[in-house]
Amino acid sequence: xxxxxxxxxxxxxxxxxxxxxxxxxxxxxxxxxxxxxxxxxxxxxxxxxxxxxxxxxxxxxxxxxxxxxxxxxxxxxxxxxxxxxxxxxxxxxxxxxxxxxxxxxxxxxxxxxxxxxxxxxxxxxxxxxxxxxxxxxxxxxxxxxxxxxx
Length: 150
What we know:
The structure is a single chain. By secondary structure, the protein is α/β, with parallel strands linked by helices. It is about 30% helix and about 10% strand. It has helices spanning about 5-30, 50-60, 75-85, and strands at about 35-40, 65-70, 90. The mean pLDDT is about 85.
């Protein structure tokens, strides 16, 4: 009818199937799927980052991603684990300013996901107009190894 015989149509269809198959194979092997299991370094039980990790665990479970939480001593240990390729940690929570590109050249930040609130309590008789007035005074911070101390 159009001057095409059945072998010509067969060759066209075979060519299309081969191209589609090669495209599928190249996408499957060159662009791998995201992992279905990740480990997040959080903080001590009940601390803010542990609670945040639990929330992400629930959110990602809806996308069939298994999330394991590893309890740590805080941001300093999280940074150490992220810098160690054999630690098994893919994600870690920490405050901004704990590290930089010199201390962790192979790490990427996803950006800010949460705001960290700091409370400052001092005796009622004292008046503070600026944090620089705390210079030389003793202050209590979070646990050893946490990002607050860094």
